[in-house]
Amino acid sequence: MTEPVIATPLPDCPDIEQAFAMSWPVRLGDTDGDDRLRLDAVARYLQDIGFDHLDAVQDGDTHQAWIVRRTVIDVYEPIMFGDRVQLRRWADALSNRWCDMRIQLRGGEKSGHIEAAAFLIHIDPVAGRPTRMSDAFMAPMLAGTTEHRLRWKAALTELDVAEVEEVPFPLRVTDVDRLGHVNNAVYWEAVEEALAVRPDRHRLPYRAIVEHVGPVMMGDKVVLRTSSQPDRLRVQVDVDGSARALASVEPLTDGASRR
After folding, report:
1. Of 9, 115, 152, 164, whose CB is crowded by the most CB atoms within 10 A?
2. CA-to-CA separations, 126 to 136, 196, 215, 236, in angstroms, rounded
3. For the purposes of burial, counting CB atoms within 10 Å of the CB of 45, is it exposed (0-12), middle (13-18) or buried (19 or more)?
4. Residue 248 and residue 226: Cα distance in Å, rounded?
5. What is the b/e burial string over 109-119, where b = at least 16 CB atoms within 10 angstroms of the residue's CB?
6. CB of 251 within 8 A of CB of 206?
7. C-alpha torsion sign, points 192, 198, 200, 206
8. Can you tell me whether residue 7 is helix, strand or coil?
9. What percent of the chain has a predicted confidence (pLDDT) above 90?
10. DSSP per residue over 50-117, as a string?
11. What distance in Å separates the CA atoms of residue 115 and residue 257, rounded to the nearest whole number?
12. pTM of the model
């Protein structure tokens, strides 16, 4: 039997107490009308703890440029406004130019549980291409993992169905980050837009995935193409008829339940 591209459930940490940990309050701007932590806010949280993690490891200051290739967010129980979220982050697998990082998010008094994974590519900020991580930077990741020849394999494909809804998705100047690209969290705003008119897709537990095909730049005319299928919601971010990101939201299987 062929191994799935993304494991269900996502792999656990061998020693969760050794994972890099941070916590902060869930603010008003991170939540929706039902007080639920939005998916785009989760994506920003993953970025924030990633940069905090760099401050805590050797050679982190020379590894400041990363491209997100894929993000997986498994929502088991929503994290709510006013709670304090505890995040733990660790490496699950790596090669010498990219890595798969796992992040666990748990609420406090109001509970809440989300598991996430991010496939990250280390890049040379000047040349803009993948570049090798230093031995010192990789050392703690190598010590805590068994997969050291990580390879990229896409989990999503472009939409190929006849019935697709298309709507414009205008960009704002605040959508662009320091690398000149539309920030990763903005693609998750697109997913939230698609979910807003299909609230049944928030039925727990569910998995949301965003895979990046190419960059979106300020000035691009972005179109969201959405297909609502019985088993999942598909979203595609297009520029000039070319796919730049692929997304899906689907129920997690019964075997994915976890405490």
Report:
1. 115
2. 22, 39, 16, 29
3. buried
4. 10
5. ebebbbbbbbb
6. yes
7. negative
8. coil
9. 88
10. HHHHHTTSTTGGG---EEEEEEEEEEEE--BTTSEEEEEEEEEEE-SSEEEEEEEEE-STT--EEEEE
11. 11
12. 0.96
